Amino acid sequence: MTALWYPEQPAEGEEPLPAPVQVVTHPVVTTTPRLLPGELGPEASYGSLWHFRGTLTNRRTAEKLSPATKDVSWLLDNGGLVMGLDPTTVLRGTGLSELNAIAQSFTFSWSINPGVLDADVVAWQTLNEKNEPLVQFVMGARNRPFLRLYSAPGIFQEVGGQFSLPEDRISQVNLSFIPLEKDWQVSWSLNGITKQTGKFVESKGLPKSLGGVAQEWRGPMVWDEFGVYLRNAEGVPSLDAGVFQRAMKNLHGTELLFAESFDGLAPPPGWELPGPPFLSLPLPAQDVVLSPPVSLEAGTYVVQMANAETLWDSLAFSALDSEGNPVGKTVKSATDQTTVEWTSHEPVLVRFEWKNIGTEVVSLDELAIFRKME
Q: Are 317 and 340 spatial neighbours (Cβ–Cβ below 8 Å)?
């Protein structure tokens, strides 16, 4: 492709002289889709996945959704396309077969902008053969999300998110289900940060099929993505333990060293833990957690912990060299009880350590370490 640059536009009817400046470029064309920062992925981990960036195609099954009422609108948001549904638009597709008779952990992910809502809106739902709802994702008044799970027509239990979505931008809402012996534990997060966990849903109150035979998206709502996460990179059934990592990567970019939420059901690679995580990491008194080793340049690094306010007097943080000796300087923030800053004046290979110096078990959740930009 050649771009021609002229100092001025030729007069009407005149043939332009040869361009004094020519720039030749060689575009690269690929049929392999590229994940954008913060986007749901990897695609192989999902049973169903839609990136609503100008397409209605399920990336996992190749099914293309059909507007049941009228066409959707494509809007520009942050340099990319998103899908707009007005109150009269219904988008319909086949059910989520991967959630029929499911007995494993999984995660729903909705990336949406609800705008300003004054009443409950069913944004997404699955339906049975009689067109009756099975699962409904509802945006309530004041933009509070909740899920309705129908065990029979008109009979449902609600799983409510105790938080609100902003009205001026796309937000990612995740809801993870973990099967227990007699019920399911659920965990909500907003833009990668856990908002509510520990809620239990009775198994006997669940629909016989979560996926149904059909599903619908409704407005008024702006949609960016929707997915059902089923398995990790090793192919093991799992909830989505990468939600927090993607959010922190999107926020801190190449300055991010670690982002670990411990909300998977297996130890993250390279970490030394006192026991297996389960939506968070139990840390017994006087026990420690060690990060994988990392080689760092001289500088100041920020350590953030989502629930550090309740652990401020119980946790001791340090960086250890290859012989286990503390290195660098650690300073706790005087104003923000979620932040510790660690500084080294020379390049060093370290492992970060968190130690419970209290007398009771505490839970670690959502640790992030990134380089501080001066």
A: yes
